[in-house]
Amino acid sequence: METTNSAELVKITSSEQKAEEFLRAKGILKTFSCCPFCGNKSIGKVRRNFFRCHRLIKNGALD
Questions:
Q1: What's the structural domain count of the chain?
Q2: pTM for this one?
Q3: Structure confidence at residue 60 (pLDDT)
Q4: Are residues 22 and 5 part of one domain?
Q5: At residue 34, does pLDDT exceed 80?
Q6: Residue 7, Cα to own-chain centre: how many angstroms?
Q7: Counting runs of H as helices and runs of E as strands, what totals does the chain give?
Q8: How far apart are CA 6 and CA 30, in angstroms?
Q9: Shared domain check, 10 and 36
């Protein structure tokens, strides 16, 4: 397991976006490439942890 020192953690947590990217890279947060309801690959991010399926025009938390 890779360790992260304090200086790296300060950089990572300096913004919500950087922290989210770090957690996704570590596999802690899930990354979706398609809608879990219809399988459409055209999804967009609405806000943190909420995505929109462009086919269903449906918002939802993909956790």
A1: 2
A2: 0.50
A3: 59
A4: yes
A5: yes
A6: 23
A7: 2, 3
A8: 25
A9: no
Neighbour-count burial of 28, counting CB atoms closer than 10 A to its CB (0-12 exposed, 13-18 middle, 19+ buried): exposed
Report the alpha-carbon distance of residue 59 to residue 45 in Å, rounded: 9
- Judgement on whether residues 25 and 37 belong to the same structural domain of the protein: no
Domain residues for the domain of 54 are 32-63
Long-range contacts of 45-48 (CB under 8 A, 24+ apart): 48/16, 48/20
Does position 25 have pLDDT exceeding 80, yes or no? yes
Instruction: Yes or no: say if 20 and 48 are a contact pair by the CB < 8 Å rule.
Output: yes
pLDDT surpasses 60 at 13:
yes
Q: Are residues 5 and 20 in the same domain?
A: yes
